[in-house]
Design a protein that fits this description.
Layout: H1 18-41, H2 51-62, H3 85-90, H4 112-131, E1 139-143, H5 147-164, E2 172-176, H6 181-189, E3 193-197, E4 200-202, E5 205-207, H7 210-216, E6 221-227, H8 239-249, E7 252-256, H9 264-276, E8 281-285, H10 286-290, E9 297-301, H11 304-313, H12 321-363, E10 375-379, H13 385-397, E11 404-406, E12 424-428, H14 435-452
Parallel strand pairs: 2-3, 2-6, 6-7, 7-8
Antiparallel strand pairs: 1-9, 4-5, 8-9, 10-12, 11-12
Length: about 450
């Protein structure tokens, strides 16, 4: 086998001068050094890799899988046969996927390279969570499904575990109200009963009172789901208080931290909750936090056995693509690049609020007093109902994507409360957005507002 770090020894008697050989070996070793460090340290690199290094790693590992063995006799029903070379490109070369039937992180005999890739990726998932503010995380996996389905997977794992030792049928989830279909459908998917605790309006903000959660608790509840990041006016839950309550009542506690990894404030709340009480798992989106295509989630836990339980609950093999996408992001950004993005996000959040305050002064509105490290909400009290409806369309036509316009007369879903009366617009300064994105969006909002008035 060729040892690329000693490639020049094969050309010792060549006409190529030694100084040229040594120079070439130096360049090659620098190219390979990050890959060697990754295998040894199993941590997110400080400096991001270039695309060629990432592709080299993926190609090397993918070529370990049995579908690349030209001398193999493949007679199984699932042999990573593909119709087009494009399949190799979009799957990173890992056509066998990850896991085995019924065990997501189990080594796959037909995919030794894919198994190595997934193991390394999960180490990086744990590492980035620790480096982002949760040093008390013991294990993490990249789930091949997005946040809502990952919540269903996680609850399914813990529900089975709980009911095996329980004499009564416990099928209810305590749910601080969150008006998001993916969360509600995840519970419906499992056939779970929802014990929803409505939000209360405190000034501009909607909060779920911990005492109201405690009053809603019944003996048929086996779990509680809490939330950090959501759209204003809904603020984060009392994660620490809920964790103490979960420990007291022996409730499974899942924290949905959808886009919260980018926020040191939200991550600090989770860290405190882990130390103070019970947190079984934390689920976050890979696309919202780590700039991947949609389709994956990072599930972390302060307990290794909890992650293994979730992994064993997954039915069948899984696509490797969401896993590879996360791996590519982590290697491309590195710790330094990710920290730079978080710093930019914090600066952009301040910029967004400042610009919206300037506009609010001109149009006799105000920026709402709601804690959210990513989003900013602005009142729209001076618009008529038909103008509220027109505003969203006007922004879309001006090529502004992502803002949310709320009309209290149109629907209540979205505010997490039945009595929220203030019309508003929400804009986000999320990780990956640029200063130009923020500036243009606010300028176009001012233009749209002026046009419909």
């Amino acid at each position: 086998m060729v040892d690329l770090s000693k490639l020049t020894k094969y050309f010792e008697n060549s006409k190529i001068p030694d100084n040229m050989l040594h120079r070439g070996q130096l360049v090659l070793n620098e190219f390979l050094k990050p890959i060697k460090n990754l295998f040894e340290q199993k941590a997110v690199p400080h400096e991001g890799w270039n695309d060629e290094q990432i592709l080299y790693l993926l190609d090397t590992l993918a070529n370990m899988d049995t579908d690349k063995d030209e001398k193999a006799s493949r007679v199984g029903e699932r042999e990573a046969r593909i119709a087009s070379g494009l399949h190799l490109r979009i799957s990173g070369g890992f056509c066998h996927g990850v896991g085995r039937s019924g065990f997501l992180t189990a080594p796959q005999p037909k995919a030794p390279g894919g198994s190595i890739m997934y193991e390394i990726t999960n180490y990086l998932a744990r590492d980035i969570m620790r480096k982002s503010g949760l040093p008390n995380i013991k294990a993490a996996i990249i789930s091949p499904v997005a946040t809502g389905m990952s919540l269903a997977l996680t609850l399914s794992a813990f529900k089975t575990e709980f009911n095996e030792t329980s004499k009564s049928h416990q099928n209810s989830i305590l749910l601080p109200r969150l008006d998001h279909n993916s969360i509600l459908k995840a519970l419906d998917f499992l056939g779970l009963d929802k014990c929803i605790v409505d939000g209360e309006v405190y000034g501009d903000a909607v909060r779920i009172n911990l005492e109201d959660i405690k009053k809603k608790y019944k003996g048929d509840c086996f779990a509680i789901v809490s939330f950090t990041s959501f759209f204003p006016p809904r603020e984060h839950d009392d994660i620490k208080g809920i964790s103490k309550f979960a420990k007291e009542k022996d409730l499974v506690h899942i924290v949905v931290n959808a886009y919260g990894v980018q926020s040191p404030e939200w991550m600090k709340m989770i860290r405190s909750a882990i130390d103070a009480g019970r947190v079984d798992a934390i689920i976050q989106s890979t696309d919202k936090n780590f700039l991947t295509p949609v389709g994956g989630a990072l599930i972390a836990s302060p307990n290794k056995k909890k992650i293994e339980k979730i992994s064993r609950t997954y039915p069948g093999r899984a696509s490797a693509t969401p896993v590879i996408n996360f791996l590519i992001s982590m290697l491309s950004l590195g710790v330094d690049g990710y920290e730079k993005l978080i710093k930019q996000q914090q600066e952009n959040r301040k910029l967004l609020e400042r610009l919206l305050r300037d506009v609010a002064t001109k149009i006799n509105e105000r920026v709402m007093d709601i804690f959210n490290p990513v989003a900013v909400a602005l009142t729209l009290n001076n618009l008529k109902e038909e103008q509220l409806y027109a505003l969203g369309g006007a922004l879309y036509n001006l090529r502004v994507t992502g803002p949310r316009v709320y009309n209290p007369n149109q629907k209540r879903f979205g505010t997490c409360s039945e009595n929220y009366e203030t019309p508003y617009i929400v804009m986000n300064a999320a990780i990956g957005a640029t200063r130009e994105d923020i500036t243009r969006a606010v300028e176009r909002f001012e233009q749209a507002y002026s046009d419909i008035k």
